[in-house]
Amino acid sequence: MLKTFHLLFVLIAISSFVGRVILSETQPQLLKQKWLKIAPHVIDSLLLLSGIALAVQGSWATTGHGWLAAKLIALVGYIGLGIVTMRSRGGRRWLAFSGAMACFVYIGMVAVTKNPFFFW
Hints:
The chain is mostly helical.
C-alpha cells in the first residue's frame, strides 16, 4: 500500500512540475496564485516522506545500498535543475528542464533495477 502511495505521489509530482513549466510559458500570471505556490511543496514533501518510509520499511537505509544514495544524489540534481527551470527563460530553461527530466528518468530506472549503473 505504501509503495502505491509513493508511486501516486511520483506521478502527481512530475505532472505538477511539467504543468507548472507549461503554465510558465503560456500563462505565467497563473503561477502567482497562492495554491500553485504551496501545492508543489506539499506534494514533494509527501513524496519524500513516503520514500523515507519505504526505505525504512524495506531496511534499505542501512549500508550496502548504493542505489539509494544514487537516487538521493539524483534527487538533489532534479531539485536544483527544477529551480533553474522555473526561474529561467529561453534556452537555459529548456536545457535545465531536459536535465531535470533526465534525473527523473534516472531515479525511476534506479528504483526499478536497484542498480545505479544500470546503463553499463
